[in-house]
């Protein structure tokens, strides 16, 4: 969608957080958001991201500039806590992590 691309471009230029998990990072590629950035994604999207000019990481969660990406459902808690950290602060993310008994 061109509208999605316009929103993402505006978010990126304004240095506001863009977060994409699983196969969703392909939208970054489709709209040329942050080319050259390090990203991660669901493994089946990896080749498309590399062909799009992104540096690919096998890490569960990757932050590059204001673009946060994550690999998939198994990495969702770590991804969510990183969003909390970026929007609310590291202390709040630690509190939530402890309350939910996450061990990563």
Topology summary:
Layout (H helix, E strand, L loop, with lengths): L1 H12 L4 E4 L3 H6 L7 E2 L6 H6 L3 E2 L4 E4 L2 E4 L5 H12 L2 H11 L4
Parallel strand pairs: 1-5, 2-3
Antiparallel strand pairs: 4-5
Question: Can I get a quick summary?
Answer:
By secondary structure, the chain is an alpha/beta fold. It has 5 helices and 5 strands, in the order αβαβαβββαα. The model has no long low-confidence stretch (mean pLDDT 95).
What features would you describe in this structure?
- The chain is of the alpha/beta class and 104 residues long.
- The protein has one domain: 3-Layer(aba) Sandwich (Rossmann fold), CATH 3.40.50.
- It has helices at residues 2-13, 25-30, 46-51, 76-87, 90-100; strands spanning 18-21, 38-39, 55-56, 61-64, 67-70.
- A 3-stranded mixed β-sheet has the order 1-5-4.
- 27% of the residues are buried.
Strand order of the largest sheet: 1-5-4
CATH class bucket: Alpha Beta
Number of helices: 5
Low-pLDDT windows of residues: none
Distance separating the two termini: 36 Å
InterPro entries: Class_I_gatase-like (IPR029062), DJ-1/PfpI (IPR002818), Prot/Nucl_acid_deglycase (IPR050325)
Protein name: DJ-1/PfpI domain-containing protein
């Amino acid at each position: 969608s061109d509208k999605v691309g316009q929103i993402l471009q505006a978010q990126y230029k304004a240095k506001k957080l863009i977060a994409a998990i699983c196969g969703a990072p392909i939208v970054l590629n489709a709209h040329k958001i942050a080319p050259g950035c390090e990203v991660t994604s669901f493994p089946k999207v990896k080749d498309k991201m590399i062909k799009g000019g992104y540096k690919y990481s096998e890490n569960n969660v990757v932050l590059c500039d204001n673009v946060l990406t994550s690999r998939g459902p198994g990495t969702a808690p770590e991804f969510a806590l990183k969003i909390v950290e970026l929007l609310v602060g590291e202390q709040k993310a630690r509190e939530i992590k402890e309350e939910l008994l996450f061990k990563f």
